[in-house]
Design goal:
- This protein is mainly β and 397 residues long.
- The protein folds into three domains: 61 residues, no CATH class; 89 residues, no CATH class; 230 residues, Porin (Beta Barrel).
- Helices cover 9% and strands 55% of the residues.
- It contains one helix and 23 strands.
- The protein has a twelve-stranded antiparallel β-barrel. A seven-stranded antiparallel beta sheet has the order 4-3-2-1-5-8-9, with no helix packed on it.
- The longest helix is centred in the first third of the chain and has 35 residues.
Amino acid sequence: MSGSSLGTIGPQILTEPVLSCHLTESTMPMVTPVLSRCCSVFGAMLLLLCSQMSFALDASLLEPLGESSIIRLRDGSTLVGEVNDIRDGRLSVKAVFSETPISIGLEHIEGLTSSKSAALLLEDGRLITVSPLKVDRGQLQGAESGLALTAVKLLNPKAWERGQGYHWQGKVSSALAYSRGNTETDELDVALATVFTSVRNRYTFDGTIEQDYNYNTVVTTSGRSQQKTATADNWKLLLKYDHFLEDPRNYVGANVSVEADALADIDMRTYIGPYVGRKLFTDSRYQLDGELGFAFVKTEYDPEATKPNSNYTGMNWNFTGSSDILGGGSALYLKHVGIIDLQDAQQFILKTTAGLSFPLFFGLEGAAEVTVDYDGTAADDKEELDQVYKFRVGYTW
């Protein structure tokens, strides 16, 4: 190998040079400009590639990701997420950084860019379609000129929300027990609740029946026998009708309830009356209806009870609510009914049920609930306060 060679690789192993380059003082002036030009071209290409990558990265932050949309607010902030719903003057957005939907008032939205088309039900009852859904300066694009986003009542409304038919919801559940041995028990507890809702009307049916018995062995001189003891024997039916007003959060209605409780010596209790109501919370996280009205109450006691039958006019209030704040398909729920005698404030009735429902398997759901009832009109020898803890299994649709 020549002494001017840049070097050889593994001279002890290889007998021929892998790379050989001869540079002399006479060839250096010719090589230097070429190397300089190559470095300049390579540097320019590298700079261009980096700038393109930076532009693509910045653009990816501004473009909708899949089904996501870009929401620009009037205060200059920007939110990227999936638009879930428009209802009650608010837009619901599911963002990647939040497990719960974000609710934004429509009046705060400056712009919205989405790749999806949408059917929009307006406050005046018209149904329009825009493709894609886009808002600029608070105005819907692709629709009639000057149509503000605040004029939208619902996003992608269902058939019943457009005034076609009813929305049917319901739940049936039971808590059953049958045991034989040292302790013998029969328990039957069935509940059914269903609601039919349209744009203007809502019909509610709620029914429960509970019959629990214990069997105790009694030994007498004549032999052994079983004594049947009722630990719960009651039933209840509730029917309600609601008519929604121009503002659908407000409504008027009437309810009628019939119930009996053998252990409380109540053969029959009936109340009926009108009320006014309002949907206090209507978003996806919290739902709560409140009602206030009057009720005519009639109670018939067991003939063996010491308390005479009673009739009175009272004030009636109701609260019904639910929340999915815990997530995972679970729901907290509340039912509360109150009636107070207008002539005797010490005679009032409170019925409260609170619980937690959660999914099980095959579409079934479980529920752990507590019921606390106070009856200020109870028979003289009966307890005024009644508490029941239950675990239920049911199906919801």
